[in-house]
Design brief:
single chain, DHBP synthase, 5-stranded parallel beta sheet, 12-stranded mixed beta sheet, alpha/beta, binds magnesium ion, binds threonylcarbamoyladenylate, Rossmann fold, 17 strands
Length: 350
């Protein structure tokens, strides 16, 4: 299949530039597009053929449901049932934006889109291109992140091209995304409001709007065999670079010393090794490849670079990667959540 790559400036585009993309969506085809979190792989959420194409293009397990993207509140009422007070309050506070909410689904949403669940995850993105695509096509867009399953989520069109060129109809290149990690997912379909995936909207921000919420027990710490996460996708190893990633925890100067020792050992054995540091600590490392993921003074910069740095490790064909750790102070633990998965929970204490 030929994949058309279309460049569009999100800050200045005309509606007709998106006409072909909208036609593809209306006809059951697939278009990758930028959102403020990561690039999404979009298809018609109400068309079972389109959702099965999404699973196929990504190599995604069919029990892992898709998020339905809407552009206005009418969209929510069309796809979701029994919308709770907390759901309404959170929509008012954070939509359009990087928050996904799980509701009971309406019948028009096919089970193939929801991975067989009777709930549906809904998000109203704030990105101009994403919004225009939904409004102009009149299609509610099912969109997982636009990567091959298991690879880091795409934050630039180049990442999407790497993974999906030849597998989908179109890729809209709208430049780098702003946030760089996926939306926060909150289940508002039951009595208790529960965070299923941490993201840019933190627990504190959510509690400011609806009072106490909990975090799905299955996603705290190392995964437990007997408790499955409520977001099916959270059980898969994700965001994984090809090399072996280790997170080194502890006091900053101890971490640098420990990592330098580990690097020395591995480089001596002839392995290609890399360190993931920050703007503040980059000078502390002795390694042939040291990458800064951003500044600890600006937590947003760390989220924005995370997946790009993980992909860079693959281009460089690195065998061992040692990274500093990023605690709950950085975006309420959302960055660390992704890092731990990428590292398959390999933690070294300095
Ligand atoms: O920021 C984002 O959310 C991006 C952009 C493109 O919007 N999308 C994204 O989609 O990250 P994806 O498919 O990579 O992750 C969706 C997550 C999966 O973990 C999935 O299991 C969960 O949402 N999910 C979807 N529907 C659900 C439901 N009904 N109940 C529980 N979890 C659900
Ligand atoms: Mg994903």
């Amino acid at each position: 299949m030929f994949t058309n790559v279309l460049k569009i400036n999100p800050d200045n585009f005309r509606t007709k530039e998106l006409k072909e993309a909208c036609d593809i969506l209306k006809n059951g085809g697939l278009v990758a597009f930028p959102t403020e979190t990561v690039y999404g792989l979009g298809g018609d959420a109400l068309n079972p053929d389109a959702s099965s194409k999404i699973y196929k293009a990504k190599g995604r397990p069919s029990d892992n449901p898709l998020i339905v993207h809407i552009a206005d509140m009418q969209g929510l009422y069309d796809v979701a049932d029994d919308i709770s007070e907390n759901g309404k309050k959170l929509a008012k506070a954070f939509w359009p934006g990087p928050l996904t909410m799980v509701f009971k689904k309406k019948n028009i949403v096919p089970l193939s889109t929801t991975g067989g669940l009777y709930t549906v995850a809904v998000r109203m993105p704030g990105h101009a291109i994403a919004r225009e695509l939904i409004l102009q096509s009149g299609v509610y867009i099912a969109a997982p992140s636009a990567n091959i399953s298991g690879r880091p989520s795409p934050t630039k069109a180049e990442h999407v091209i790497e993974d999906l060129d030849g597998r989908i109809d179109m890729i809209i290149d709208g430049g780098s995304v702003g946030i760089g990690i996926e939306s926060t997912i909150v289940d508002v379909s039951c009595e208790e409001t529960v965070i299923l995936r941490p993201g840019y909207i933190t627990k504190d921000m959510i509690e400011d709007v609806v009072g106490n919420v909990s975090i799905d027990a299955a996603i705290k710490g190392i995964p437990k065999k007997d408790i499955l996460p409520k977001a099916p996708g959270m059980k898969y190893r994700h965001y994984a670079p090809k090399g072996q990633l280790f997170i080194v925890k502890g006091d900053a100067c101890m971490v640098a010393a420990k990592i330098n020792r580990l690097v020395y050992e591995k480089e001596n054995k002839g392995y290609k090794v890399a360190v993931i540091a920050t703007d503040e600590s980059i000078i502390d490392y002795k390694c042939n490849i040291v990458k800064s993921i951003g500044s600890r003074q600006h937590e947003d910069s760390i989220a924005a670079r995370l997946y790009d740095v993980l992909r860079e490790m693959d281009y460089l064909n690195v065998k061992y990667i040692y990274s500093e750790s990023f605690g709950d102070d950085i975006l309420g633990g959302a960055v660390m959540n992704r890092m731990l998965k990428a590292a398959a929970y390999n933690i070294i204490n300095a």
